[in-house]
Task: inverse folding
């Protein structure tokens, strides 16, 4: 009996010593913990290949995503939508999509997590591969926060940016961190810092796509969004000089190419054929005829056929012809220059860049001077400019030119947001759907609101 | 009794050391948006005019 007792105790001790004590530990399955720069690069490449294959939705976007953005805006006539099979795929107004922006939120924070891993965990520093990794990680993190800011933060207000809500800032990989929202001003500073760090590596590696020039273009976009007109000018000018505007058939070819990155495009999605990218491209192309282009958009083309865009962007049935494109190109830089100079009251320079763009699009065009600018359309949807004031004829001409030039590139929705978030409505099946001012800013996903103590939701959203 | 305890420990011991503890999911709800409401007569007229203008513009094409 005593022996049995001793054996039992011994067995118990043995079990206690050899049993597993780390059953709660999470062990990576089928994943390699990166050590070399090449292995860290793989973390970024998974995101970049989504862009190349045309199905990234959050970083640069894709054809379907750009079409959706156009559908939120006044570029298409949503009230005249034709009923076709599969219509559920495209929204009738922004309200159809606001709750599902959480997908972009999650994807962008997943990208930020991987960028943080590269920035803080990679030990290799001196090789070309390591430098390209750092450059891409900083730039992509800046881009991720820039995209989050435009979607989930209110439009930038120079006077209130210190109090406006920003985002949760995560700059290190930390599973336990639960950061509350910063101010909008802090987010802008973080993006600027990241893009400048990315630029400092001077990466020209096309494999990583987010080269030094792309980072500079995003920096110009950031300064523009945050109304830092003085700083936007030199950066936009540098890019425009490096990627001069093209015109005529070269312009049409550039924007019609299904995969090729042509002309003055710095970065575009869908450079490779892929089943998901093909679906997005063909889907977007197929849906173009479903929503007519709005009359207010068509009426902007006062030069009609003399403007190359008039026949390229839509046909005489008011069906859009240009397939939505996710890209960054230098015409946007030209428009940033014109508008920035206009806000600084440097009218000569503003007119110079506005006329430069128009000279590349309109044959036999008459250059604008202060005396022949068209009057501001007092009946237009947009009534206040980015600084909250009334449009001058010069700012109005630039605003209209931007709308024409960046059609089907997902710009108009954010331009409405930047210029006063005007309210409007559409009709569908006898019902009125309103785009209210607060709907220009998407809700922070409820999971983050529930999990993070003190996390503040954007105005207007209740469960 | 000792043997019974050992057997209990053996049977009740962890057999899946790589299991991930269950994740605590919060209730994720959608946010309410302004409800669509029926068009008023004036709004119906506005839409009618919009359709008329569009149909006239593309007529015969």
Result:
């Amino acid at each position: 009996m005593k022996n049995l007792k001793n054996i039992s105790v011994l067995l118990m001790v043995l079990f206690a010593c050899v049993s597993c004590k780390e059953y709660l530990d999470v062990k990576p399955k089928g994943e390699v913990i990166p050590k070399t720069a090449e292995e860290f690069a793989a973390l970024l490449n998974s995101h970049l290949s989504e862009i190349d294959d045309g199905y990234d939705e959050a970083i640069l976007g894709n054809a379907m995503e750009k079409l959706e953005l156009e559908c939120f805006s006044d570029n298409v006539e949503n009230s005249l939508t034709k009923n076709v099979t599969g219509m559920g795929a495209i929204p009738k107004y922004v309200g159809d999509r606001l709750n599902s922006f959480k997908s972009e939120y999650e994807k962008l924070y997943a990208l930020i997590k991987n960028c943080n891993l590269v920035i803080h965990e990679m030990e290799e520093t001196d090789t070309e591969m390591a430098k390209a990794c750092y450059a891409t990680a900083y730039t992509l993190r800046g881009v991720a926060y820039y995209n989050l800011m435009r979607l989930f933060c209110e439009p930038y207000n120079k006077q209130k940016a210190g109090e406006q809500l920003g985002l949760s800032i995560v700059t290190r990989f930390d599973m336990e961190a639960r950061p509350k929202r910063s101010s909008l001003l802090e987010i802008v500073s973080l993006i600027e810092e990241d893009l400048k760090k990315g630029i400092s590596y001077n990466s020209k590696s096309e494999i990583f796509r987010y080269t030094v020039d792309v980072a500079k273009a995003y920096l110009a976009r950031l300064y523009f969004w945050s109304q830092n007109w003085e700083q936007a000018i030199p950066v936009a000018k540098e890019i425009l000089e490096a990627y001069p505007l093209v015109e005529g058939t070269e312009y049409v070819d550039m924007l019609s190419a299904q995969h090729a990155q042509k002309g003055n495009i710095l970065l575009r999605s869908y450079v490779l054929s892929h089943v998901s990218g093909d679906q997005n491209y063909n889907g977007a192309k197929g849906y173009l005829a479903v929503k007519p282009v709005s009359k207010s958009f068509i009426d902007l083309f006062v030069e009609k056929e003399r403007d190359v865009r008039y026949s390229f962007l839509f046909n005489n049935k008011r069906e859009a012809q240009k397939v939505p494109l996710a890209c960054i190109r230098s015409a946007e830089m030209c428009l940033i220059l014109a508008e920035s100079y206009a806000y600084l009251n440097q009218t000569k320079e503003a007119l110079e860049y506005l006329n430069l763009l128009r000279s590349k699009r309109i044959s036999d065009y008459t250059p604008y001077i202060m005396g022949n600018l068209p009057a501001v359309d007092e009946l237009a949807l947009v009534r206040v400019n980015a600084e909250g004031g009334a449009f001058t004829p010069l700012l109005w001409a630039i605003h209209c030119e931007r709308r024409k030039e960046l059609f089907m590139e997902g710009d108009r929705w954010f331009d409405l947001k930047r210029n006063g978030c005007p309210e409007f409505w559409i009709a569908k099946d006898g019902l009125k759907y309103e785009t209210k001012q607060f709907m220009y800013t998407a809700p922070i996903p409820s999971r983050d609101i529930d999990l993070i103590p003190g996390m503040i939701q954007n105005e207007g959203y209740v469960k | 009794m000792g043997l019974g305890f050992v057997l209990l420990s053996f049977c009740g011991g962890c057999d899946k050391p790589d299991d991930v503890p269950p994740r605590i999911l919060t209730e994720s709800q959608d946010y309410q948006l302004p409800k669509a409401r029926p068009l008023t007569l004036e709004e119906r007229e506005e839409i009618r005019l919009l359709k008329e203008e569009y149909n006239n513009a593309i007529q015969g094409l």
